[in-house]
Amino acid sequence: MSKTMATRPYGPYMGRKRGLQKGKEHGIRMGRCQFVTDSMRPAPLPLRGARVLFIIQGFDAIDQGIAHGLRQTVREAFTATAVDMLRLAAELGPDLVLVMNGLHVFPADHTDHVDQVRQMGIRTAIWFADDPYFTDHTATLAPHYDYVFTHELSCVAFYREVGCDQVHYLPLAVNTAVFKPMHVSPEYRSDICFIGNGFPNRIDLFNELTPYLADKKVLIAGGLWEQLEGFELLKKGIKLQWIPIEESVKYYNGAKIVINVHRQTYHEVYNKNSRNIPGHSINPRTYEISGCGTLQITDYRHDLDLHYTPGHDIETFHNSAELIQKMKHYLRHEEDRLRIAIRGLRRTMNEHTFVDRLGKLMDIVFA
Q1: Residues of the chain whose pLDDT is less than 50?
Q2: Which fold has domain 186-351?
Q3: What is the pTM of this model?
């Protein structure tokens, strides 16, 4: 019998075997995730007797999470864009106008409108989600508000220095209605996943990772990744486009490992942080990836230990060699991978929801 004939049935057999194994792994993970989500459905909390007008920033992953969280936190919550803020504040007479970020899609005169809202006797608060990357702009915005909240530890002192009296560290969180464990079809599955733009520090890291990733099933999505030195080796797994939230959730769920790499805090093109204020705090992706019940390996930030425990409910790396070593381990040891992922899911649902964060915000504003 020729070699070709002898191996002909072997290919389909091995394909079915691999498919069954992947299906089994996915099923085990989903079963354990389901146990966590079923056992962690807290009883509704009493609503605070306040009316809040929430001004969105235009980034659905966070905006929807806050809007959903407000409905579970206060008696009345209204959501609007910045162009309607002044009119609705006058019509609704809320107890608080809460602005998300105040950047990117906000009109140039929005601080004048904030000043007018304050003159109505309405409390105002802003929650900065892009610190410290746009502090050249936020430095002029923050003093117009009664309360300033920032997810970035290093910016608390900065806002006090520019004249803000009420400045508070308030980490971001996850929208558990969106970022959650789910069944996904095979096209969303990968060994290694990264979603985000190819900023220079990320390109440098993945240049070093490329030889290891070349024979893995990889998903990299976002702009600027054509700059990779080894683009041709990885291009079948690269999507040079923005990925909608609902698709990101599927890719996170389909990955064995999701890498999280924070952007560098100073870059003359991509950032507006001329003071070079350092980044000490974790990004929203940290919560979102863990909220999907997937193993996350992230670069280290100073406040990570306040929210997760490296090696227990999240993994970290400090350089490419350490990242490769950990990826090798967790791709070979499924139980180790699942154990940390499930712990991360549990802690995220227990401690890092927008309901939790908004409760703290309201305690400060209405103390």
Answers
A1: 1-8
A2: Rossmann fold (3.40.50)
A3: 0.91
